[in-house]
Specification:
94 residues; alpha+beta; 4-stranded antiparallel β-sheet; binds zinc ion; Regulatory_FmdB_Zinc_ribbon; Putative FmdB family regulatory protein
Length: 94
């Protein structure tokens, strides 16, 4: 169950654990019962797998400054042909 942050105008920030279906619902301050507004912050990335975190970082870097390439990354040619039929090799290529 995710934790959502709210800010009470009198007492400051507090957190509420609730189901995602109730994420848009208003909250009341547990100390003074005033209505509180939701506070949006960065997602908690502490528990992420390092591989996933590197992939997210690479995605963010790529979104801001994409790398210019001259060919498709990875293998340039397939090691094994898709078909062993020799007629397929004579088909026109793009
Ligand atoms: Zn309060």
């Amino acid at each position: 169950m995710p934790t959502y942050a709210f800010r009470c105008p009198r007492c400051g920030e507090f957190e509420v654990r609730r189901p995602m279906a109730e994420s848009a619902c208003d909250a009341t301050c547990p100390d003074c019962a005033l209505p509180a507004t939701r506070v949006f912050g960065a997602p908690a990335l502490r528990g992420l797998d390092p591989t996933v975190r590197r992939a997210l970082d690479a995605g963010a870097r790529s979104a801001e400054s994409p790398q210019v390439v001259t060919s498709v990354p990875g293998r340039s040619r397939r090691a094994t042909p898709l078909s062993t039929d020799p007629r397929h090799a004579r088909l026109p290529r793009p």
